[in-house]
Amino acid sequence: MLDASSPQDSSRTDSAPAPVVCGRPELRRHPVRHPDEYNILLPEWLRQCILNVPPGLGQSCPTDPEALLVAAFDFGFQLHEGQFRASGDPCIVHPVAVADLLRDIGASASVIAAGFLHDVVEDTDVTPDQIELHFGSEVRELVEGVTKLGGIHFNNRTEAQAENLRRMFLAMASDIRVVLVKLADRLHNMRTLGALKEEKRQRIARETKEIYAPLANRLGIGRFKWELEDLAFKLLEPEAFREIQQEVASKRSEREERLGVTVALLNDRLAQAGLEGCEVSGRPKHLFGIWSKMQRQQKAFHEIYDVAALRIITPSVEACYRALAVVHDTFRPIPGRFKDYIGLPKPNGYQSLHTAVIGRHRPIEVQIRTIEMHRVAEFGIAAHWKYKEGGSPASSSSEAERFNWLRQLVDWQQEGGNDDHNDYLSSIKEDLFDEEVFVFTPKGDVVGLRKGATPVDFAYRIHSEVGNHCHGARINDRLCPLTTALHNGDFVQILTSNTAHPSLDWLNFVATPTARNRIRQWYKRSHRDETIERGKDLLERELGRDGFEALLKGEAMTRVAQRCNVGSTDDLLASLGFGAVTLQQVLNRFREEIRLIAEQDSAPPSNEEVARALVPSKEPGSDQRHSEDAILGLEGLDYRLGGCCSPLPGEAIVGTVALGNHGITIHRQECANVESIPKDRRLPVRWNVHGAQPLQRFPVQLRIEVIDRVGILKDILMRLSDGAINVSDAQVKTAVGRPARIDLRVELRGSDQLNRTMDQIRSMADVIGIARTGVS
């Protein structure tokens, strides 16, 4: 399993067909063969398991941990035999590596067995029922949780990625250990991406950086997080990676000498203080962490002092604080750099004392923690004692707050928060980042929130009904506006009323995706009738009133609703009225369905519904004629707007016929790509000035070069918001000593609006330049 973003992704070569498994696959009886006869390199622990397990492995559901692991490995080996990865290695190498990673972090036998089997349902003919037959329901659920959705058609990669992540998070809510298998799977695939195409490597690396590394961090699995970040960093920013790698390597001997002297000094001082059993060591920081700090603080490498740090492992919590006193007595502490994550742990369970001191002529970071705290920092949820009993921490009431973010994410998607795949993916990415503000409930319970969170965010974190009925807040016993930003240590009390309800104005200041999604959901539910009527008006204005009610009740419109991922025609109209789907999307899919119906009929269609759907009639009493498309001159042919030049109404355009079955592409006449296309493949086309273009928006990519300062992106977005311009994507790239580059994808009505927008942005003080680029 290479990737959750596309069900067709596979890392093995197409020339190696999967073995056909008919009926119930039979396990060979042990000993199958000597470990050396498997013809692949096995981890030593697996070799020993194979040698230790006695003959008679043919029974189903082995209860002995070693027998379970050997059975799972041999089962996977047989099924993957004859399959190869793109690198040329046998496919079984990947499940073995995944199982090895899971064993390294202390996962249970069931989880490691799932690591051996996580690809068999997706890549062979084995069914989940057969997995359960041989290995029990626990292993089956783990394998199903990480198996991508197969046999389902997705309209695009974003939709596939969203649906597969939805499935994974639902499985995590039932058993959080599912994510251990998925993270190990992703880590080994990141280590072995070399045989894939560059475009695919970039996509997988970006998804790893945005979703899987933050997910490992949220669950406290530091060992996975650091390597995932570095591997993604190496692919996405190769030049920066090499530069930092060389800088770290060039100063290595000097740094090790300095750390060695400091470690020896601290060991002596701890011994003098009577702190026995403490272990002091130096540790290098991972390259992505160094680069991130350079970007965040706008500093060069030589200005970052904590490239390496000290770690003190103590036998007890009391010893941690005593060791802190020794460190501060030996070196001068830097004010404002002490953090007590023991008394106030991070939401992912991380505990440690952090301080920074002036060491040998330069600052140095020090972390102090117990052995158990260190295990949790390295292995996260895998270090939880529940795993030793085969349970899942997510189901423990004592862990409820720790996994509250996961519960709310799953609740949201189950309550209809899956209308927009881009919105869902954005929410996941936002919700996986570290929480930075810790506030208290009136009872003294700690709640972690995103930096910049407000009382409304706090209310929705407590419960959706608390947020929906919030009408005020007390912060530290003082009445404060709901827009007030919360700070560490604040005591927050939410005032509620049965008559209070959310306001759309809250969307302007809430900081958490949970709050934003809940507010939108409430608005959609409470204004459902209104949004249905608005959607119906939009559709009726385009299709005409004659026979409109019959169209809404027809089979074609029901199928359009299903294709738009909503349950019914009313849901479709509500989504249209609320703006979750566009009028153009509905019309295009409706016409496609009508064409399919026409093709399936044996007789030529004479139904008025079909004729009117393909050529919309004008409204009674209206002098404005509506055409089927925004482009005239194509006579109903399929076309797409060229992403290289993103043409807009008001600009001179030309159609080009692509080779193969790629349809017609609309370019601006001055587009550079048009010059290379023969004239016999060009079509004269023009914008339909009498169509329903005011209802349409067209994507345009803008590249803005700005002076890098805090808040510049926010200022630009506010300027666009004032002009009622939707921004569908924003990316910022910065470099030390250089102007920042902002890439925005905006949706505009025409060339006039584009010119006005560019002039408005160009007039801003910190904007150096703005240009129009292609839409990728």
TrEMBL record:
- Chain ranges of the HD domain: 91-190
Instruction: Give the pathway listed in the UniProt entry for this protein.
Output: Purine metabolism
Ranges for domain ACT: 701-775
Indicate whether Lipid metabolism appears among the record's keywords: no
- InterPro entries linked: ACT-like_dom_sf, ACT_dom, Beta-grasp_dom_sf, HD/PDEase_dom, HD_domain, NT_sf, RelA/Spo_fam, RelA/SpoT_AH_RIS
UniProt keyword RNA-binding present: no
Q: What does this gene product do?
A: In eubacteria ppGpp (guanosine 3'-diphosphate 5'-diphosphate) is a mediator of the stringent response that coordinates a variety of cellular activities in response to changes in nutritional abundance.
Can you say what this protein is called?
Guanosine-3',5'-bis(Diphosphate) 3'-diphosphatase, (PpGpp)ase
Query: What are the top taxonomic ranks of the organism?
Result: Bacteria, Bacillati, Cyanobacteriota, Cyanophyceae, Synechococcales
Gene for this chain: spoT
